[in-house]
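For the sake of transparency, this paper describes our internal protein records without simplification. The record that follows is passed on verbatim for readers who wish to inspect the format:
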Amino acid sequence: MKRPGSVIIILCTAVFLLAAGSACRRQEVVSLRTLLMEMTDRAALAEYPSNVYQVKQFSSYDRRSVHPDSAGWFANDDYTRFIRTDSTNGRREFVMFDDEGPGAVVRWWMTFAGEGAHEGTIRIYIDGAAEPVLESQPIPLLSGGMLAGSPLSVSVSQDTELLRRGHNLYLPIPYSRSCIITYECDAVNFSGVRARPSIYYNINYRKYAPRTTVVSFTAAELENNRVLIEDTNRALTAMPDIENSSAIRRISGTLEPGDTMPVAYSSRDEAVGMISVGVTARNQEQALRSLVLTAGFDGINSVWVPVGEFFGSGYMRTESATFFTSSDSSGYFRSYWVMPFRNSSSIAVINYGRRSLQVELEVHYVKHRHTKGTMYFGASWHEYHNILTAGSELTGGTGDHSDINYVDIKGRGVYAGDAVTVFNTVDAWWGEGDEKIFVDGEVFPSSFGTGTEDYYGYAWCRPEPFSHPFIGQPSGAGNFHPGQTINIRVRSLDAIPFTSGISSNVELWHWVPAVINYSLTSWYYFMGPAEVNIKPKPGSVMNPIARDADDLMPLPSAR
């Protein structure tokens, strides 16, 4: 295949119009401009895409993973794996991404280790052109602000050494006919037992239906959208405007064990725009697990998640903010997911704990134009409690790792994000596991990653906390030592549409045998009716939370 026209990266010029959801959804032509406008429109996520597309991923996952029944399904050499090697004008270019047809790169993550790993040259060839439209070393391109400022282009955590960070680019790169991304790196050597140095990548992209009109990315497109890019960065980090709510309901008081604090509301064609919960308790950590948020829309109950996990805070008071959630150290939590309903909604918190709590619940409602594509919001949670990890054969384990499940959904909808809260009990990394997301009955997952921290945007198991519109680590205390780790990823342009179902999973791949707690939260939208495999289990939120390793059961051999 041939390639695109030459580079030099310049930022953009255009007037920023923060589109109403309906305007963005009616847009049939896909471009850098429309994608950026969609990214900052929370309501757009609640509409099933009118421009049909799939979300897929290219990554450096270990190619020995070919089938769930294969010996290599949990193989862990997830680096320096490419589609092929091209020889271009005497250069050795390793192909990381190759897609035919209209599409758009919507999320790109990389990290590096070893001499020269990050000093090569990325080239992006679009629509068969022989010259690249972009050409750069990877760190300036992805996280150094060459294309866009933060948070569209950022590395995390800022408290981590630069070469131990995950490098993230969220600026979309659309293409009308094809896209090839290569990496030229003279340091790469495939001789010996393993390839060196280590180059990891995950690139998520939209693959549009063949007749979709897409305006391809060019230096001129980038320049023409300079103002829009700058305004998008501001919009992604700004608090949403909740002053224009059509109605607000507030309730507060003491919530005794077993009691429910409900907020019911009836109106035509509206949506929940914001939920705020404040919690005060003698045992704050247990309260964040035992106090559960529920929600139902038009009689369909679709949310049952502990308050701490729903807002991306585990069972800790944290200072963090994504585009859809926020928490602060005083015990207040907010959600900005748009939750449409045609006639009625019911939001409530239920105290499954053993002590009374002081609770404040506030719900803001907004007008919402419903269409045939308007979906309901859902969220589910469950915990693998006192689960035994296999451990690697290299560190005294069996190597018999397993896949654990975020959620399975049968029906039509969009997968919008997830979070994990892990309590680790040993001095070893728990998160080698790759995400595996099967869409619409796939035999092999269209998203197969390279490690849990890579999926959540950081790298090298680093414990330093960070907060970003689409990814976050409110706590990494359990990454290397006993403690609680919280990772969160919410999706916008990389949200995954499904027509018949989705199965979202991650490998339980801990370096050593250990007993840990591993809980998973998922956020999604669906067109009713839909079948979700994760059901409410009140007993699970009544389990005492772990504060130190002794709170969990010892290894079987040590009993």
